[in-house]
Specification:
Blueprint: E1 2-10, E2 16-25, E3 30-35, H1 41-48, E4 56-61, E5 64-65, H2 71-76, E6 78-82, H3 93-97, H4 99-103, H5 108-121, H6 138-150, E7 156-160, H7 168-185, E8 188-192, H8 196-202, E9 205-210, E10 214-219, H9 221-226, H10 231-237, H11 241-245, E11 261-263, H12 268-273, E12 278-282, E13 288-293, E14 314-316, H13 322-331, E15 337-340, E16 346-350, H14 352-364
Parallel strand pairs: 3-8, 3-9, 6-7, 7-8, 11-12, 14-15
Antiparallel strand pairs: 1-2, 1-4, 4-5, 9-10, 12-13, 15-16
The chain binds adenosine-5'-triphosphate.
Organism: Actinomadura craniellae
GO molecular function, one term: ATP binding
Family: Belongs to the ABC transporter superfamily.
Length: 365
Amino acid sequence: MITFEGVSKRFPDGTVALDDVSLECATGEITVFVGTSGGGKTTALRTVNRMVEPTSGRVLIDGADVRDRPPAELRRGIGYVIQQAGLFPHRTIADNIATVPYLLGEGKKRARARARELMERVGLDPALAGRYPAQLSGGQQQRVGVARALAADPPIMLMDEPFSAVDPVVRGELQAEFLRLQAELHKTIVFVTHDIDEAIKMGDRIAVFRTGGKLVQFDTPKNLLAAPADDFVADFIGYDRGIRRLSFVPAAELELDDRAVLPENASVAEARATGADWVLLTDSGRRPLGWVAVSGLATDRSLQHMPRAPLGHTFNVRADSARAALDAAVLSPSGLAVGVDDDGVVVGVASPLDLTNAIGRESAR
Ligand SMILES: Nc1ncnc2c1ncn2[C@@H]1O[C@H](COP(=O)(O)OP(=O)(O)OP(=O)(O)O)[C@@H](O)[C@H]1O
């Protein structure tokens, strides 16, 4: 556990970067520091490995003051990942990853073998081991940065905007893979970001900082969205926090309707009888095929021959959140989200109204 006890930092020019910050980063969890630019997130992170010394207060790791340990020794147990990866440009990928093992006196052969193993862990092709950083994409470089931080197997990792320098798609992949890795490794992680979506996705707990180095709220993502401590936090989370909260509602709680789900050999008359504007056609195994708009269907033939709009995305009723259902609804030509089970079989559809009701129920809790 990392404990901040009344930590303040005033730089020599008078800037107060941290103002009496107290919080605990639990062992094996991801604690995210989020907030306005200049809010003191990076400064707080750097007090843990003594890159910044507090003016007052203490930082403890498992109860021991970090000031009682020489910085070099302290940092061997703390991985550090920064934006743009911060790789050594003239060293190969393998040598970048093996930096700390080399420093610890590990032989070249063993350190390089470990580097290759770590490359696989973070989703990099070991064939890239002999390349130089400039020969990799931004996303690949970030993975190298993570692998390098993991090389000494430190119990603690400090990550300062580690995925900010890449495009949103790559960032999403890096986030998801890092969460998978963390589920195995259970490191104690402090993660700085200015992106509230990233904070909610990555954090077991989130600390919100505001200008002047004040910690305004420290809570789980779910509680933060449900009960922002003040207007600053509410503003920071955004007016769309109702939508964000859907991430915490399991899709299984949605009431799905299957009246407008028909086999593709059903007739236009059957489609009309549903009273729905759109019907979802399924194959013989009740897997979804696409949508048919009911209005304007003049003939009374099988729906099979009618113009069909694409299915769009589906959501998994067991594994996904209501947020995934919302995304599916927004992207669907019918405005309805199709819920499927693990085998891809249709369970039913959810309308935007069902999703609004889910937000209402979540708010009432
Ligand atoms: N070495 C320094 N000397 C003087 N002021 C500093 C120093 N380092 C940081 N600051 C100031 O301390 C405040 C907090 O900076 P910090 O980098 O911790 O904020 P941050 O929340 O990480 O911001 P960002 O999201 O923009 O990176 C800012 O006003 C910054 O200008």
